[in-house]
From TrEMBL:
<dbReference type="GO" id="GO:0008526">
    <property type="term" value="F:phosphatidylinositol transfer activity"/>
</dbReference>
<dbReference type="InterPro" id="IPR036865">
    <property type="entry name" value="CRAL-TRIO_dom_sf"/>
</dbReference>
<dbReference type="InterPro" id="IPR001251">
    <property type="entry name" value="CRAL-TRIO_dom"/>
</dbReference>
<dbReference type="InterPro" id="IPR036273">
    <property type="entry name" value="CRAL/TRIO_N_dom_sf"/>
</dbReference>
<feature type="domain" description="CRAL-TRIO">
    <location>
        <begin position="100"/>
        <end position="241"/>
    </location>
</feature>
<dbReference type="InterPro" id="IPR052578">
    <property type="entry name" value="PI_Transfer_CRAL-TRIO"/>
</dbReference>
<dbReference type="Pfam" id="PF00650">
    <property type="entry name" value="CRAL_TRIO"/>
</dbReference>
<protein>
    <recommendedName>
        <fullName>CRAL-TRIO domain-containing protein</fullName>
    </recommendedName>
</protein>
Amino acid sequence: MDLELSSSSINGDEQANVEVLKAQIESTIELDDALRAWLTNITYARFLRARDQSISKSYKMLSNTIEWRKKKSPEKVVCVACQKNPRSHSLRAIGVCKIGRPVFYSCFQVDNRNVEDNITHCIHLLEKVFELECTTEQNYIWVMDFSGFSAADLNPKFSVKALKMFQSHYPERMGIAVLFDAPRSFQALWRVLKLVVDTNTKKKMLFQNPAPEYPEFDKLFNRDLTDRLVLEIKSARETPQREFWLEGPVPPMEDMKMHGSHSEG
């Protein structure tokens, strides 16, 4: 796995395909200002990468997402559940990696396991985090801590729906998924998830067990962000009712400006 692969550049061959796909979309689909602002060159490139540069397949995928965005207006979505209860969800942006990818952390010490609420939370996070100045890459790293994982989390409904949404409407957004301390019981769920996870996504899964040191973290993150992650992991096990979950904003995007700036050291 290439731990420092940039996703923000477009090579010459990709740019040629971007121009063809852009011309097809603009000549066949009515676009409002919000969609035109979203349809940057790198957005076209992400959909092309997801379909191995096939213009026809990328057009179909992108046109479906455009229709979804027209109906959903995801750029306006907020997580109402978190506004009511900050402990509803744990997934939040906590910094950026060495090359500028946003880093998400989550664990299963949460109050809300409602499928639709969780999907809304994910949409809100994905729409907002890539607008931040400190985010210079187009994909993210997700450290998924399995602390608090229970039988209630073995229902694949949320995972399957979320994966389908990510793959259909947020292609090439996930750079690396670090599955931390996944229990044996997760294997049954993983067998189901593998049926809906594409081959490229499977290659981005990095399983990590608890250890005295985390060399993979050191490759990905600057020291302050590694320390923050280790603190998160420790706190999830020792003090799951930790008070910083009550801090705003929700999700706390401002936190990213304080941890792991890619311009540091």
